[in-house]
Amino acid sequence: MPWLARIRQLGVPAAFAAQDGCDQPGLLPWDSFDVIFLAGSTEWKLGPVAERLAREAKARGKGVHMGRVNSRSRLGIAEWFGCDSADGTYLAYGPDKNFPKLLRWLDELDGNPSLLGAAPPFGGPDAVPRAARPREAPRRRTPPHPGPHVPAVPPAGRTSARTR
Q1: Do the Cβ atoms of 55 and 82 come closer than 8 Å?
Q2: Alpha-carbon span 142 to 159, nearest angstrom
Q3: What φ, ψ does residue 120 adopt, rounded to 5°?
Q4: pLDDT on residue 148
Q5: Could you tell me where the beta strands, DSSP code E, fall in the chain?
Q6: Model's pTM, two decimal places?
Q7: Which of 1-5, 19-23, 148-152 has the highest mean pLDDT?
């Protein structure tokens, strides 16, 4: 907390690392940060509290970032939560092979039609995007793979990666 104001003074967006246990009412200093960073355990980061906080951050005009996104499934969850950005080590291991895969994942997510329309650029509806998106396809707004506790049923006319 004591560093958030100093980070902002440097002209850098200040991020708050949300993680397990931060769902107590009034705990998040919403006015003190610009980006919520979905960190913490895998279970927490992919769960309902993280999703709720991501959606609240977007409603407040904050950016949303998710860490440790190293699979197509997790990238889909980050997109579903409304994340503006994500990081991971996926490209560090076999970049020649994994970079084309990552681009395909992004194309798949961008190619799915949206019922809600495109999300506003980082920082809210009036913000000027820092860099143009490479693709202008609509953003996906359907839930990603539901996880191991719910059977995956691909949409009509599509096959899942498991059935190919």
Answers
A1: yes
A2: 15
A3: -65, 155
A4: 42
A5: 15-18, 35-38, 63-66, 85-86
A6: 0.68
A7: 19-23
